[in-house]
Design goal:
homodimer, Phosphoribosyl-aminoimidazole Synthetase, Chain A, domain 2, eight-stranded mixed sheet, 8 helices, globular
């Protein structure tokens, strides 16, 4: 942790400290202001750690995405990883580099202010205070953020990708494809930033499913879980690989988001299968377990089954409404594909 | 934590996994390969977390710094923060973005390989395995790294900046100004990268003082500590501010690094006071405590005293060999100053 300097970046640092003060978490013994933060989680809990980049030009476009959304999504990505393991947040850490020019213009400072509004609002909601991080001048002229989330879960109980077995039933929370559909709007020439309510915006303000993940863990409902950050096809393949099973999912069961339903059906299906960034949870449950239709107010939908792996069957099979079967290749977000917001 | 993709970046990911396998730490229950890593530190210990950017053009120059050095320094910055609090490492997390062009050329892949050689070698030495992180394509064409270190220390015993009192004696480990002196060489037109032994290179391969920090904590020698990352003048001011004291340091006592001694004396003094990146420890100890001349093989030097703060005296006073006194302003590394490697 770099020491925060008092000169030239006062407002920037104030914003970071504000987040530390806003949302409290009793496990944070010492926040910003020393070489390290000190955390004292419950001794019966294990510690979960995840890090996620939010890079301008890769994960967002500065003159397209409202900066509240950039701050919100930055934190949401990490919170969603905690949700996928059934953990509760302890603290967040933010490394943030901005071009020095942003610190000398009202427009730049406003952008940073609103970035923190978005980040703090979500952190406050989930008791994930900002307990430290690093600041730097961005040498490339682009905003660069890396978020770290530390969480905790009862020792030995974290939901992993690897616990599913053949015969388990597959479920997803909420609806799929909404983030891809909204992203298309954000990138359209006519899109303009304006004050936005955060509900009903799956791309701009995704809702990490922390309460659902914690309920799955507490009520011992799930054998394995993952968050759908890279797309259902890609994230389901991770579950299959880690749990050494294959999957069959039914097209007709997929809960397609209302925003994606405005597309033609093939495109809507593509968004739901491969769109990514929905930050819903995908989980497996034993067939003997009764999984409720809603958990913590979020709809839960059965979408398929896990089966024993064999060499004749594809990793993931998609079954259409007429019973037709086809292999589903992972085709979600690639970290090094050409898919990014750069043109 | 983003899921690692198998296509197009296999070698990159292999390097990351290798670090996870190389250096073991029994507190890492689950490393790379799930939504979060799972850590199970000793329940009687508190958890320390620190994050540090290493940005091309800000913290290093890709065609100047050997990439082993970039990987080493990236990890060293975080380890040094743990050292300053007397903690032992549990795990490291690396978010690393590289231009996609580096993944398709031998030169680029070699750079990444050697970056990890440097990082893993230091991690192995200090039992700080890479337990996760994130990867991305860097949209700016620059290498961007953010390192997270998680450590642990006996509950309530972490060395803070705020524990020093008036009357305490100030000490530093090792020697100062060496990093600034070596940096000047690295940036000279004639400098060429070549295979380098890691000892005796305070800028390229700084040695985080983990054993010293842990000994200070274990033997209850220090009342406050900080690592000298931003420069003695700046980091001592942090101790003074946090502990509500002022400091007097004696020029003649400062242990100046042999590389800095090759400069004229005024320049050598400037490097020792403000150079930064030496990653030595600065600590305060009660005058009643006997501080050894060496701890864990590292020389310990008394450099001055802490005094009660009063409005007539500057925050830090530098006393020269003739007894002359002058105020010492913090003039170390500024995160948003023009001081960076960009031209």
């Amino acid at each position: 942790m770099r020491k925060m300097q008092p000169l030239g970046e006062i407002r920037f640092i104030e914003q970071i400290r504000r987040g530390s003060a806003l949302s409290k978490n009793s496990a944070v013994e010492l926040g910003i202001g020393d070489d390290c933060a000190i955390l004292r989680p419950d001794p019966n809990y294990e510690i979960l750690v995840t890090t996620d980049f939010s890079l301008e030009g890769r994960h967002f476009v500065r003159n397209r995405h409202p900066s509240q959304s950039v701050g919100h999504r930055c934190l949401a990505r990490g919170l969603s990883d905690l949700a996928a393991m059934g953990a509760k947040p302890v603290a967040a850490f933010l490394s943030l580099a901005v071009p020095s020019s942003m610190l000398s213009t009202k427009r730049g400072l406003d952008w940073i202010d609103r970035f923190f509004v978005g980040l703090h609002r979500l952190g406050d909601l989930h008791r994930a205070p900002l307990a430290g991080g690093d600041t730097a001048e961005s040498p490339s002229g682009r905003v660069l953020a890396d978020i770290v989330l530390v969480g905790s879960a009862p020792r030995g109980r974290s939901l992993r990708r690897s616990g599913a077995r053949a015969g388990d039933v597959l479920y997803v929370t909420g609806a799929l494809g909404g983030a891809a559909a909204e992203l298309e709007r954000v990138l359209m020439p006519g899109f303009r930033m304006r004050p936005i309510d955060i509900t009903g915006h799956p791309h701009l303000f995704p809702e990490p499913r922390l309460a659902v993940g914690q309920a799955l863990l507490r009520r011992r409902l799930a054998t394995a879980a993952i968050d759908i950050s890279d797309g259902l096809s890609t994230d389901l393949a991770h579950i299959c690989r880690a749990s050494k099973v294959r999957a069959e999912i039914e097209e007709a069961l997929l809960p397609i988001h209302a925003l994606a339903k405005q597309f033609a059906s093939a495109k809507a299906l593509h968004a739901a299968l491969h769109g990514g960034e929905d930050y819903e949870l995908l989980f497996a449950a034993s067939p003997s377990v009764r999984v409720p239709r809603r958990i913590a107010g979020v709809p839960i939908t059965r979408i398929g089954l896990l089966k024993a792996r064999n060499s004749r069957q594809p990793f993931i099979t998609l079954i259409d409404a007429n019973g037709g079967r086809r292999p589903l290749e992972p085709a979600g977000w690639e970290h090094f594909s050409s898919r990014s917001f750069m043109v």
